[in-house]
Every structure is written in structure tokens, then in C-alpha cells.
Amino acid sequence: MAELRLEELSASNIVAANNLSLKPGQEQFIAPVTYSAESSVVNPNTAWQRVVLLDDKVVGFIHGNFDPENSHEEFRACIWRINVDAEVQGKGVGRFAAEALAGEAKRRGFDRITVLWEPGAEGPEAFFHRIGFKDIGETAYGDVIGALEL
Predict the structure, then answer these.
(1) Could you tell me if 108 and 150 are in contact, meaning their C-beta atoms sit under 8 angstroms apart?
(2) pLDDT over 70 at 29, yes or no
(3) What is the pTM of this model?
(4) Rounded distance, CA 62 to CA 82, Å?
(5) Edge-to-edge strand list for the sheet holding 134-138
(6) Mean of the per-residue pLDDT values for the chain?
(7) Hey, is 49 helix, strand or coil?
């Protein structure tokens, strides 16, 4: 696989990010990228949004949040959303994005990152476990809370 790189989410790449394809059954677990884009307007000091490029093609998207003062520990340094195009799933794109966010978290002084996911056969649980996240709890809505120690 060619070299992956990150670029900030912007007007020039948001359409490509929003058009990332999904595998059958993944629709219920992933919201459109545009839902994340508004977060950078509402929370410009905490949102961290990047697209993953393979050559010059957008193949992934990650939205992180860094809010050290958040009253909920699981929201202080976390992955809000990660989307990888169906064509390249299983080829390291998601791991690359998550590791980039983990590196940014470490640079900012955090010692772990968290993520929430909805349990389900086609959901992201196996992916997060493969890259090192451990289940640490559950939300009142039944989402799993995972953490990756840095």
C-alpha cells in the first residue's frame, strides 16, 4: 500500500470524506462526516478532525476531541468518529488514523484515549480490540466505553 498521510478536514475534502463507502450492515454504526463538521464550529478549541489520504484520494476520516476539563473522563481525549472507505478496510487505514490521534493526545499530555461504540456484529468492536482498546465500562445507553493506554 502506498503511504498514508493526514490532512485537516476542510472545504476542499469534506465532500470526499462524506462520500466514503461502507460495507453492508455498517450503516447503523456510522453517521455522515458532516455531523462531525458542525462540531468544529461549535467546539473549535477541542475538535480534531482529519482525513486520511492514500496518494491523493480520501480513504478515511477521524474526529477526535481533546477537552481536559470535561466533567466526563471518557470525553477528555477521545475518538468521536472514525470512518474508513469499504474498499480499504482491513488495510491499516483505521489503525493509522487512530495511532495519529493517539500521538496527538500524547503530545498534549494525555495518558490514554477513549472511544464509545454500539455493540453489534457489523460494528467496530473487533477493530478497536485489535488495535489495543480495552473495555472499561458502558454508557447508560448501552454503548461500550473502550480505552487505550498511551
Answers:
(1) no
(2) no
(3) 0.88
(4) 4
(5) 4-8, 47-54, 57-66, 77-84, 112-117, 144-149, 134-138
(6) 89
(7) strand
Distance, CA of 6 to CA of 27 (rounded, Å): 24
C-alpha–C-alpha distance, residues 46 and 76, integer Å: 9
DSSP letter string, 73-138: GGGSEEEEEEEE-GGGTTTTHHHHHHHHHHHHHHHTT-SEEEEEE---TTSSHHHHHHTT-EEEEE
What is the longest distance spanned by two Cα atoms in the chain? 42
Domains of the chain: 4-109 (3.40.630.30)
- The count of other CB atoms within 10 Å of the CB of residue 28 is 11
Contacts of residue 34, defined as CB under 8 A and 6 or more positions apart, other chains included, come to: 14, 18
3-state secondary structure of 36: helix
